[in-house]
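Just wondering, does anyone understand these tokens?
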Amino acid sequence: MRCLFSLLLLAASARAAILTLQSARFIITDAKGEQVRSEPISTTHAAKPIELGKSDTLKLTFQVFDKEEGQGVQPHQTFLRFYDEVSGEEGLQPVRVASNGKAKFELNLAKPPLSLPPTKADTPLKLSLIIGAPSHSPLTVKLPDLLLPASQAPPVHPDEASFHPLPEIHHTFRPDQKLPPRPISAVFTAVVLAPWVVLLGLWSQVSIRVPYIFSPSILPFIATLGAFEGLLFAYWVDLKLGQVLFYGAGLSLATIFTGKNALAAIGSRRTGKGN
């Protein structure tokens, strides 16, 4: 029985905790600070829309009041809601309320808040006040419509194009490499092997026995010539021009040294044979 009585008492106290809005008024001032319009805000009758210029400032004052206790209340949350019925854009602007329930809000169009949605010159914003407190019923008060100048287009970010869909990338592959005709390949093969044919022809004119060619003085020179042929083949298959020049420079020095020794050995052999 005592528990039921406590619940009824709690329900009665919750029902009694009703918030109201008192001393609500708006004031419009121009850029010089002179008052253009000042009217109280009625929560029961529709008022004429509040129209602001580009340099005007809107000052809104009110007090959140507990109707039963007869004193000001500091609610837990208080917001001004801007709503555009045409575009569906809306914004919520928190309002600071003092401990005695009094609040003051200023809207300066020279520095509009970020919560203010984009506006058009002929489309007013619906303005309402939303108040909430844990120990009181929520309160929503419809304020006069707000007619503002058309807002400027937001500046274009330099990286905006990066966030748009880009054209589809189509890969173009090179056609397969075409091999030259066989007769042309045969001609260039003959050109590559021609120095060896000339070398064999010159050897046939020199009275040098085959075992003597493989002597320690002549064989290194023949090996360097074969290395040159292998380097050219490797260049055709895999190597790059810079690598061929680097390796060829080393082979050139070795060829000069071994060739000099080979010529010296052949000259000494001829001289000894003549004696």
Summary: The chain has two domains: 17-149, 192-274. The first strand starts at residue 19 and ends at 29. Residues 86 and 123 are 8 Å apart (CA to CA). The domain at 17-149 is CATH 2.60.40.1940 (Immunoglobulin-like).
